[in-house]
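Weekly sync, protein design subgroup
Attendees: M.S., D.O., the rotation student, P.L. (late)

Item 1: inverse folding check
M.S. brought a backbone from last month's batch and wanted to see whether the design step gives back something sensible before we order anything. D.O. pointed out we never logged the input encoding, so this time it goes straight into the notes. Structure tokens as presented (393 positions):
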């Protein structure tokens, strides 16, 4: 199998029309985490029709298709796409818009799935490579760690890989440009929560009770000191508050006895992650003690930082360059503050994760206006094909 430029693949109008139709079909029927029944049925049927060996059931709705090259070779790689949608009401007015109220493909997983299916078709038609490719279609990427669940249920025991690769679209960037970096590329994503407990009391007589809202104010103003004074200047950490609840809107004259706060923490280094967890708790306890209140603190580790392996990053850059040319590949892209559960796979197996420009006019992901740009399908498919050539050629 020779390397194939994206422009060459773009000329295959019949192929692209079919893959685009599949993408839009998936978009019209969004399914959220671990409920991707119709999507996994579509994926499994498509792969079976290509003659691939199919395994179903990892993380409930996961699908793995296996294709062996016709050339002698022992090396095995995994190519992963995510399938789940989000709980968002779509506002795109497309002919293929979501037909499920309150759910939509607002992150482009429909496009990721379609591009990997397209690559599977092309490789099945011309398996001139030495080794084996596992096509991994993963459920539940959005916040519930479907990749971790697949691993826990035996993904790499059933399908050992020498390397594993992932890809995600990137809105607000030029269509068909690739972005990657070696080392930490995406942040760890964790949730912290705090319950401040006082006695509450009458709003006109605060001296007769203890006020957890005062502890809350002290705590919130101190949070910024973690990144500013505890994290080294060449590293970074983001700590944000996403939810606060206390009292009742109909009782403004009552000081609440309880305040609940939840937020997110984003870091790139394990030691910074540990530091942030420790310092949030210390500041919470200090603020509570200052105002004669009590604090219950919990730090929930969700997704680790996504760390690309050096050798596999070099291979990913080579594959992207073969697809679009060196001028459209950024091998030293900026780190991304979002999180991605492909990080779990990279903890278990060497590999790399790359981003593909979805268009400068693209709405941002996780918004009601977002739509995957079908014009980038040939770029994504050609990247997968060239990556197989680089790895197994």
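Designed sequence read out in the meeting:
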């Amino acid at each position: 199998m020779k390397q194939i430029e994206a422009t060459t693949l773009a000329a295959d109008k019949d192929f692209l029309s079919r893959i685009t139709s599949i993408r839009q079909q998936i978009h019209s029927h969004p399914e959220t985490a671990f409920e991707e029944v119709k999507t996994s049925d579509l994926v499994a049927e498509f792969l079976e029709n290509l003659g691939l060996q199919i395994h179903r059931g990892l993380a409930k709705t996961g699908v793995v298709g296996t294709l062996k090259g016709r050339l002698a070779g022992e090396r095995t790689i995994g190519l992963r796409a995510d399938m789940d949608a989000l709980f968002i009401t779509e506002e795109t007015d497309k002919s293929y818009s979501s037909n499920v109220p309150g759910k939509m493909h607002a992150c482009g997983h429909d496009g990721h799935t379609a591009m990997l299916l397209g690559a599977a078709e092309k490789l099945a038609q011309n398996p001139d490579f030495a080794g084996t490719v596992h096509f991994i279609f993963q459920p539940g990427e959005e916040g519930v760690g479907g990749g971790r669940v697949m691993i826990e249920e035996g993904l790499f025991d059933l399908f050992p890989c020498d390397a594993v690769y992932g890809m995600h679209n990137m809105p607000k960037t030029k269509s068909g440009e690739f972005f990657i970096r070696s080392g930490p590329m995406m942040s760890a994503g964790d949730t912290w929560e705090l319950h401040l407990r006082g006695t509450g009391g009458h709003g006109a007589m605060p001296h007769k009770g203890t006020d957890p809202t005062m502890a809350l104010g002290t705590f919130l103003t101190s949070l910024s000191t973690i990144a500013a004074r505890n994290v080294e200047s060449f590293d970074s950490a983001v700590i944000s508050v996403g939810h606060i609840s206390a009292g009742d809107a109909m009782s403004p004259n009552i000081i609440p006895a309880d305040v609940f706060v939840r937020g997110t923490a984003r870091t790139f280094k394990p030691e910074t992650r540990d530091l942030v967890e420790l310092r949030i708790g210390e500041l919470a306890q200090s603020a509570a003690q200052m105002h004669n209140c009590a604090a219950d603190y919990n730090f929930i580790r969700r997704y680790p930082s996504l760390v690309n392996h050096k050798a596999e990053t070099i291979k990913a850059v080579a594959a992207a360059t073969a697809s679009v040319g060196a001028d459209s590949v950024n091998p030293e892209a900026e780190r991304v503050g979002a999180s991605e559960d492909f990080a779990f796979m990279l903890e278990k197996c060497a590999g790399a994760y790359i981003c593909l420009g979805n268009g400068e006019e693209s709405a941002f992901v996780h918004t009601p206006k977002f739509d995957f740009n079908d014009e980038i399908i040939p770029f994504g498919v050609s990247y997968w094909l060239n990556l197989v050539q680089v790895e197994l050629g």
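Discussion: Residues 270-290 form the longest helix (21 residues). DSSP finds eleven helices and 16 strands in the chain.
Action: P.L. to compare against the previous round before Friday.
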